[in-house]
Write a structure and sequence with these properties.
Layout (H helix, E strand, L loop, with lengths): L13 H8 L3 H7 L1 E5 L1 H9 L1 E2 L2 E2 L1 E6 L1 H6 L1 H9 L3 E4 L2 H7 L8 E6 L5 H6 L4 E5 L5 H13 L4 E5 L8 H7 L8 E5 L1 H10 L3 E5 L5 E2 H6 L7 E5 L8 H4 L4 E4 L11 H17 L11
Parallel strand pairs: 4-5, 7-8, 7-12, 8-9, 10-12, 10-13, 11-13
Antiparallel strand pairs: 1-6, 2-3, 4-6
Length: 286
């Protein structure tokens, strides 16, 4: 058993107070820093670099977590992060979860300029328009990562990407793919169309059926899915911007699908179509 003692024992210490303030959006924006909690998020943050800089800048850990996740602490130190052994009360004070896992990292903002996403000629993009629930935003980001999407775009009407609940719900995917934030939906659609991307709005009342789109083999090209608000979907003016408004068919008696489930279905449908013979990902461009 380690004989190490925590160096941070007071929740009122300046370092702890500074970290705790990052739970609030205005302080995150001012400092351009956010919290990442738990071993999975901290491990991914330690491995991530943007613009030549390490994303993880500071790590608070209990003595027990330091022993259990010694490899993660080694990766954090290798990335240049300052590592603090902290009392459990300190971790509980900084954490935004009910049952903290003993690791809380402070990370630099990592959103990508929208122009860089367009310049990379993306093949599959998730656009979150008017998505207000941070858990849903993080889960859709995770789905996009799993489906092999090239980027995620959050419009200026959507939730803060760095909300602690959104970061947790992404389960590390936040660090895996480019994410642009604060982009007006009109600009997002126009920019993606200009980059040769077809815009599909996901809406339960859409005129086009996802199964029909797949049968017609119209989904093999570069595609961006636009997902709307959890409660009221996409406003008419946003639907009008899309090349097609597509509904996920309901074959059983369920009234509807929730946002994250519908996003997973749509993104995986596009991923499969793009990887089929003749799809945009089955062609190697020199």
């Amino acid at each position: 058993m380690s004989s190490a003692s925590p160096e941070l024992i007071s929740p009122r210490s300046p370092r702890v107070s500074a970290a705790r303030r990052l739970a609030r959006r205005n302080f995150r924006g001012k400092e351009r820093l956010f919290l990442a909690e738990g071993p999975q998020a901290v491990r991914e943050a330690a491995a991530h670099r943007a613009g030549g800089e390490a994303t993880l800048v500071e790590l608070f850990t209990t003595v027990e977590a330091a022993e259990r996740y010694a490899d993660i602490l080694g990766e954090a130190r290798a990335a240049g992060a300052r590592v603090h052994l902290a009392a459990e009360q300190v971790i509980e004070d900084v954490s935004t979860t009910v049952t903290p896992q003993g690791l809380v990292g402070i990370c630099r903002f990592l959103d990508t300029p929208f122009e860089e996403i367009l310049a990379a000629r993306p093949k599959l993009v998730a656009v979150l328009a008017h998505v207000r629930d941070p858990g849903n935003a993080g889960t859709v980001l995770r789905c996009a990562d799993a489906a092999g999407a090239d980027a995620v775009v959050l419009t200026d009407a959507s939730v803060d990407l760095y909300n602690p609940k959104a970061v947790r719900a992404s389960v590390g995917s936040l660090f895996h793919l480019p994410v642009a934030t604060g982009v007006p939906v009109e600009r997002a659609v126009a920019g993606l169309k200009g980059a040769g991307v077809r815009i599909l709005a996901a809406d339960g009342a859409g005129d086009d059926d996802l199964d029909d789109e797949l049968d017609k083999k119209t989904m093999g090209g570069p595609t961006a899915w636009v997902f709307g608000n959890e409660a009221w979907g996409l406003p008419e003016e946003t639907r009008d911007l899309a090349d097609a408004v597509v509904r996920v068919p309901i074959h059983g008696k369920a009234e509807s699908l929730n946002l994250a489930t519908a996003a997973a279905v749509c993104l995986y449908a596009s991923a499969r179509a793009q990887r089929a013979s003749g799809g945009c990902r089955s062609v190697t461009v020199s």
